[in-house]
Write a structure and sequence with these properties.
two-stranded antiparallel ribbon, globular, mainly alpha, 2 strands, homodimer, about 300 residues
Chain lengths: ~300, ~300
């Protein structure tokens, strides 16, 4: 349940963990080039719900992956997410001035700096995965095995971020402005635009612990896909219904930009039903994992019931 | 010697090898989102001197690293280079309309697409490193060792690309427009802006073969730093002296943009002397490697003697 103080406590602890990891990964603001580093820290630190990192931590708990490895994975995904927000807000894209309750990076600094902030955050995400500490203190094969697993994580994050993932979804989004999309087309867009990175968050977190078998991987993937889409449907509903102050970003932008959304295609009521259906699919996918999936289950509730 | 037909043949063969690797890595132009994929291919294929890939191949020959691994490394570095050109040409950066003799990506397509092209090419570079085939067919530890080495390559490329490398150099470059820089400041900028990726090209290529000892690594690094700076000094001389038609990009832009360059600080004659000095340092660094360094030696000649 979202209201569970137990879950809220868990979320706070892990939000603080990823904040610490991000603090350490981001170059200090006084290091040259100082303006770029200051802007990178501005873009990443002290804001956001950290949904993707929380998904990574929760999936790490599912497979018994704790410690600094999962923090590195969580930070890597959040860095990709943060870079995408900085670039999406640029004038040539969504041209937005408000993000997480603050001026967007190109408003606070300038466009060229915002471009380089996004570029540098993407590099830093791969750095985060590459410099992850080994899971075991044991020397030899096991430790090298950790390295091979990290390489799979690099591959997964690269795919999820690139033209067949998040960036590709953004391209489809741009091309769809002013067009009438059918539901399957909208779904195709969001599976790329937001779904790919949410899926990566879950799988990267899971990769930090014991290996899952093929069937378990598929099940977890099914969970991730459903929760990724649910996240987007709820986002569209919130964009249509909530205020700018609540969201910390400009509300009502989708309609204003004539962008197809779940709300524009289905209306608010049916969009809410769809979110519930996806939520229910996600919860069902977790059943085989039993109690180990507690945090993923609570996160699925949070994603659907959130109000910002 | 640059005029050596032997070297020219070697360069042509390896330019074709990296072109094939890039062709395979880049998603087909008909795959969705087709416009983005078409633009990515436009940005990368069929152009450029491929100096960085050639450095990777040459360093691979130094350590006996052949085959597809070095092609993946060469392609990864070229993808980072190509992404940086697409973003640097954007209106909020250098605002250039001509690159490799063709309209720049944002002119041929649009700004948003150019932004996403750069973002996607960066992801693809890390994908290229992560999906590199193993060096040996042998199963077990050796093969896993290859994976650990690849992870070091990811780390190296992430560092070279990010805010402490290429993107950071670009930020320093932007901040220096209209300012009077001293030579050490200019050098600091270029060590980041172009030097970091050229160094990465050499080291990634070398990592595809037998391990070098610490002293050999340092020596190779010294070569790479000198040739990276020489490359930039020659670039500045060419920008001042050559025509747009020869360069395939807008000539005389540095002076026009009031950018500090080796020519603006030293004048053409002293800049040419500096290039020769760096060239000589680079050649000396290669001596301990003997005949194995032939291609690196020839590339150093090419970098300094090129006319475009």
């Amino acid at each position: 349940m979202i209201a569970s103080s137990d879950f809220q406590g868990w979320a706070r602890v892990n939000q603080a963990r990823v904040e610490t990891a991000l603090q350490k990964l981001l170059p200090a603001a006084h290091l040259a080039p100082a303006r770029l580093h200051e802007a990178m820290r501005y873009a990443v630190l002290g804001g956001g719900k950290r949904v993707r990192p929380l998904l990574a931590y929760a999936a790490g708990e599912l497979t018994g992956g704790g410690g600094e490895r999962v923090s590195a994975a969580a930070a890597a995904v959040e860095l990709i997410h943060a870079y995408s927000l900085v670039h999406d807000d640029l004038p040539c894209m969504d041209d937005d001035v408000l993000r997480r309750g603050k001026p967007t990076v190109h408003v606070q600094y300038d466009e060229a700096t915002a471009l380089l902030v996004g570029d540098s955050l993407q590099s830093l995400a791969f750095h985060a995965l590459a410099q992850m500490p080994p899971a075991s203190e044991a020397p030899g094969a096991e430790r090298i095995g950790d390295r091979a697993r990290q390489l799979e994580m690099v591959e997964l994050l690269a795919q999820a971020s690139g033209s067949r993932g998040m960036a590709g979804g953004q391209a489809i989004d741009l091309a769809s402005v002013g067009k009438t999309l059918e539901l399957p087309e909208l779904e195709f867009m969001h599976i790329h635009k937001t779904g790919a990175l949410i899926r990566a968050a879950v799988l990267l977190g899971a990769y930090c612990g014991e290996n899952l078998n093929r069937a378990e991987c598929d099940t977890l993937d099914h969970f991730a896909k459903n929760i990724g889409l649910a996240f987007q449907v709820v986002d569209d509903v919130l964009d249509a219904e909530a205020s700018t102050a609540t969201l910390g970003k400009t509300a009502g932008k989708d309609a204003q930009h004539n962008k197809p959304t779940y709300v524009s295609i289905l209306g608010v009521t049916r969009a809410k039903h769809l979110a519930e259906e996806l939520h229910s699919n996600a919860q069902q996918a977790l059943r085989p994992f039993g109690a180990k999936a507690l945090r993923l289950k609570q996160l699925a509730d949070f994603v659907v019931q959130r109000e910002f």
